[in-house]
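Task: encode each sequence below as structure tokens.

Item 1
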Amino acid sequence: MNHWMIAPVLLPAMVAGLLMLGSNVLSLRIQRAAGLLSGAALLAVAVVLLDQAAGSSQQVYALGSWRPPFGIVLVLDRL
């Protein structure tokens, strides 16, 4: 199971939550830098996942090890 498949979902959600919690404490410059760094990290994860999808067939990630139709399943393919 490839845990990188969940990163494009979790990374923006975690950074957005941290930026919202620290909006009163952090300066605008730090918030913008954190946004740009998270965008760059998301781009790097997308490139890694694109490379993995090009080299193999479909990969399936079942969140919480629940089978469909009860769980959420992420699929990594070339589409």
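Item 2
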Amino acid sequence: MIDYYDWPGGREAMLRFGPADGPVVLVAMPFWEEANRTRSLVVAMLRRLADHGIGGALPDWPGTGESLIDTEQATLFKWREAHEAAANAMGDRRCYGVSIRGGTLVDLFGLLFGRWHLAPMTGEAVLRDVIRLRAAAGLRGDEHGLFGAESPVRIAGNRVSPYFLAGLAGAEPYDQPGVPRRVVRLGHDRGPADRTIDAVPPWRRAEPQEDAELAALLADDIAEWIASCEG
């Protein structure tokens, strides 16, 4: 169902899945075109989690989805504020963060009982991808002073604020002391991980595709991890 949450800059939509009580996961999606390629997998994963008795919340961030804010007005700080507000909207439920790729850089302010990260990225890695994407589109990575521009730059069809890009410099996934964190990676990603799954990352595909098997694997992993945290 569609729900809404309020953050300091307005109101945004949020898809809700599963039971209305018990533990719930709050998803932070990857950035820009990777979110489009990953969304169907995330929805399928949240539906499988509902079968495990775990609720799910998939919020729009400012400037994404059905948001009334222009994409170019979004900043990393605004997304972090929105993530915190979405976590607070879970009320007294035990809320766990599920973050994917660049989404791991958004989950910073929320008071969560644990964090599950899929292929976490640093801000510097996101910026390298930005340069690669622009090069693939025939643009110089630093055209018009990409990282010091005063006007929005185009990244995979999205007009992105230079302040958003500046906020990525030095950003790292949040590993809060005393709060459980699990890292899962896919395919040939050999970074530090608690588990690596032999699967094609959805964000590397040319078009969004259904992958029920991967969605089930990820949902099972999250459910088992939450059960260990709850125990």
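Check on item 2: The radius of gyration is 17 Å. The CA atoms of residues 77 and 173 lie 14 Å apart.
End of task.
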